[in-house]
Amino acid sequence: MSERLTKSAARNIFFGGTIFFFVIFVALVAQSVSYASQNGAVPSDSVAHGKRIWERHACFDCHTLFGEGARFAPELGKVWLRYGGAEDPEGARERLKDWIKSQPTRVEGRHQMPHFDLTEKDLDDLIDFLRYTSTINTQNWPPKGRG
């Protein structure tokens, strides 16, 4: 017995598959939005402004954030914690501000971060953004311990 796929059966498979995968897509988007809203995903105005500074100065051209971006400079997803933000938030803020202000260091043989003429408010907002990124549960991504 020879069975053929008719035009009608092919159309039914196409539309049925499209509807099935669209429903799966909508369910996954809803689950992602639910997960993000339950885990404090609504940033403050200073964090949002800090992200705009990050984008305006194209920090991702050199740095990575959660593994995304260039790999020319260090990963910054957990830089707030690396500078002691969990134990001493104000000290970490000042250390990060001083580090950003002191660039470039002009040390031979090292990659140098350019000097960005940021105002104090811009620096504070950028650091608020970096602090916010350190609180995101990345489920151990990127796999390296740095950041």
Could you outline the blueprint of secondary structure elements for this entry?
Elements: H1 7-38, H2 45-56, E1 64-65, E2 68-69, H3 79-82, H4 89-101, H5 120-134
Antiparallel strand pairs: 1-2
Helix pairs in contact: 2-5
CATH architecture of the largest domain: Orthogonal Bundle
Helix segment tally = 5
Give the rounded overall mean pLDDT.
89
CATH topology title of the largest domain: Cytochrome Bc1 Complex, Chain D, domain 2
- What is the succession of H and E elements? HHEEHHH
CA(first)-CA(last) distance: 64 Å
Find the structural class using helix and strand composition.
mainly alpha
Quick one: biggest sheet?
2 strands, antiparallel
What is the radius of gyration?
Answer: 23 Å
The total beta strand count reads 2
Placed side by side, the strands forming the largest sheet appear as: 1-2
Q: What's the helical proportion of residues?
A: 40-55%
CATH class descriptor of the largest domain? Mainly Alpha
**Could you give me the name of the CATH homologous superfamily of the largest domain?**
Cytochrome c-like domain
Give the number of domains. Answer: 2
